[in-house]
Known about the structure:
Elements: H1 3-17, E1 19-21, H2 22-29, H3 33-45, E2 49-52, E3 55-58, H4 66-69, H5 74-84, E4 93-96, H6 100-108, E5 115-119, H7 122-127, E6 134-138, E7 142-144, E8 149-151, H8 153-160, E9 166-169, E10 173-175, E11 179-182, H9 185-196, E12 201-204, E13 216-219, E14 226-228, H10 235-243, E15 247-249
Parallel strand pairs: 4-5, 4-9, 5-6, 9-12, 12-14, 14-15
Antiparallel strand pairs: 1-3, 2-3, 7-8, 10-11, 11-13
Helix pairs in contact: 2-3, 5-6, 8-9
Amino acid sequence: MLKSERQELILNRVEQYGKVVVNELTEELAVTEDTIRKDLQELSKAGLVRRVHGGAIRTDKSLKPFEQRINQDSSRKQAIAKEAVQFLHPDQVIYIDSGTTNLSFSSEIPLSFKGTVVTNSPSIALNLSDHSELRIRLLPGELNKETKVIEGSDTISAIRNINFDLCILGVSSIDINKGITVPMMEESLLKQQVIKQSSHVITIITADKIGSSSTYFVDEAKALDVLVTEKDIPDNLITPYQQEGIQVIY
Length: 250
C-alpha cells in the first residue's frame, strides 16, 4: 500500500470513528508503529488530525489554538455571557471552566462581587485579578500550551476536595441524545468530576454547538440545570432540553 493510500485510510477511520489508535493501525495495515507515527505526524502538520497519546483524533472547532478562538464570535459570546450573571450570589464558591465564552463571562462579573472563583484557566484567573473582593484559586496541574488550560490528574484530585455552589461549565458540543461531549479524554474526566462536585451547573453556549457531538462523553444533557444561549435560536432546538427539566435562557 502506498503512503498516500495508507494516509487516506487513516483519515477515513478518523472521520468514521472520531479517533485512531497506533497499535490497531499497525495490525490492520501490517506496518511498523514508527510508520504510523510518521503518518500521523504528517497529517497533524497538515491540520487533518490532532495527535494525542497513542494515536490521533478528529480535528474539532473547539481545538483551535486559544489565540484563534478568543476573537471568534466574540460579540455573540459577550451577549449571552451577560445573561448568566443573574445566577451569581454573594459568598458563592464558583467554578469557572476554561473556554473563551467563559472568559467573556468572567469579564461580566461586577468588580464589587464578593465570593470565591476556582478555575483551570490562567486567562480567567488573570482577567479577574482586579476584583478586590474576589478570592481566586487557580487549580494545580500541567499547562496545555495550545489550549492554555491547566489539566491532568493533579487538577482532578484538587477538584475532588472542593464543593462548588455554582459551576459555569465549558461545553463545546451538546446533543439531547448524545449528551455533553468533548474532543479530549482528559477534558471529559475533569468535567465529570466538576459536575459531581457542583450544586448548580450552568453552561453558556452559542447556538452552533447545540445539536453537535464530539468524541468523549461527559454526562447526559440533563446534568445541566441551566442552558444559556442566543436569542434567535429556533424553538424546536430548545424544546427537548426544556422537556428534560433544564431551564433555557435565550
